[in-house]
Amino acid sequence: MSALIELKSVSRHYEQATGTVRAVDDISLSFFAGDFSVLAGSSGSGKTTLLNLIGGIDRPDPGEVLIDGISTHKKSESELANLRLQKIGFIFQSYNLLPVLTVYENVQFILQIRGIPNLSHADLILPVLKRLGLLELRDRFPSQLSGGQQQRVAIARAIVLKPAIVLADEPTANLDSETADNLLQLMQSLNQDDKVTFLFSSHDPEVIRRARTVIRLRDGKVIEIENR
What we know:
The chain has helices at 47-54, 77-87, 103-114, 121-131, 147-159, 177-193, 205-210; strands at 5-16, 19-31, 36-40, 64-67, 70-71, 88-91, 165-169, 198-202, 213-218, 221-227. It is built from seven helices and ten strands. The chain has a single domain (29-59, 73-227), classed as Rossmann fold (3-Layer(aba) Sandwich). It is α/β, with parallel strands linked by helices. α3 (103-114) packs across α4 (121-131) and α3 packs parallel to α5 (147-159). Helices cover 34% and strands 28% of the residues. It starts with a strand and ends with a strand. The longest helix is centred in the C-terminal third of the chain and has 17 residues, at 177-193.
């Protein structure tokens, strides 16, 4: 089986007044379709930087990232943006919902960017909203939702076009334990029933407990890989 994500000797260094910061330091990893994996580590371990490199939000120096066999190494910014639209769904810690759009419209926004004909929008969006318990909330704005409901909208937006992989940066960080537990159960269900591939960055013990593969990071390096 070919890797869905492949990292080849990926590094990301930053120059500061105090010297070079090695946020990610010579990491090689592979992830496969159906994975439910987490990049685990404390703040400053490099997990969010690594997730951004995988998602093409940042670029390695040096190293190479391949997404579904496609190298991002020499892609222009517009080509990277198109690759993200085609292959990757994002769930951000801060939700990143558009406040002037309803639940339905926030999910629809991705379809509009992709140029999906309007006649197909409801057929794609409504089943996902129903799956995530959001159908009755479809006309509400983000300010009218709880944190857990906003995160479910972010999940709906990430999976509506069935991307090759969903990248989730600290998805439970702003949630109470009960809401976080419900969301993790939902993501496990999407992984098992709908074959959605998830890669998290997190220091949440509950996210780490539920993951089937745990990649532990410290000071930008992989210190342990645990397969369950």
